[in-house]
Design brief:
The chain is α/β, with parallel strands linked by helices. The chain is built from five helices and five strands.
Length: about 180
């Protein structure tokens, strides 16, 4: 048995503009995949609790209540997953902004360069339309680096593999031994 929480769907999600933009995005992405591009889907999330299983069945003698925030300070996660399932991950205690995002991209590019000198010819970065993805700093950095970038369509969460990665990450207790967290 599973539990599904029903959430409000934003009216903009299925407006004609969003549907058209998602369709164009899907076509573009399929073109790159047909050309055998390596697609790196990059996104951010955060961890402020270790156990995201907020609603679940439990034994009679087991508490089902979860602490509100048991990771302090919260962790910002920037992650990329490619079409082969390889994951690149960054954890920090700062809020993600353009500077942190560009630093992640820089380190990711260095890693990709070490793996394959010609990675830019067959690699595509897939981003959502987060503010720091669209910022002038990020756009300038990506343009100057020569990376190919596609921005996903609005409300296209199910088409973003990184969202499935975050879902799997948050489906388990990340700290089953209840080890205290902190800056030290």
């Amino acid at each position: 048995m599973s539990y599904t929480q029903v959430k409000f769907l934003n009216a903009k999600a299925n407006c004609p503009r969003s549907l058209v933009v998602r369709s164009l995005y899907a076509r573009k992405l399929l073109e790159y995949l047909k050309q055998d591009f390596r697609v790196l889907n990059i996104d951010e999330s955060f961890l402020d609790v270790c156990d995201f299983r907020k609603r679940r069945w439990s034994r009679i003698d087991e508490s089902n209540s979860q602490p509100k925030h048991n990771i302090s300070p919260r962790l910002s996660v920037i992650s990329a997953i490619d079409t082969d399932g390889e994951v690149y991950l960054s954890l920090s205690t700062v809020k993600t902004r353009s500077e942190e995002f560009c630093l992640f991209i820089k380190r990711l590019m260095l890693r990709l360069q070490a793996q394959d000198e010609n990675w830019k010819a067959r690699t595509l970065f897939l981003l959502d339309a987060a503010m720091y993805h669209r910022s002038a700093d990020t756009r300038n950095y990506l343009c100057n680096s020569g990376a190919k970038v596609v921005v996903g369509g609005p409300y296209a969460f199910s088409a973003a593999p990184i969202e499935h990665f975050f879902s799997a990450l948050k489906a388990v207790d990340l700290n089953p031994n209840k080890i205290k967290t902190g800056k030290r």
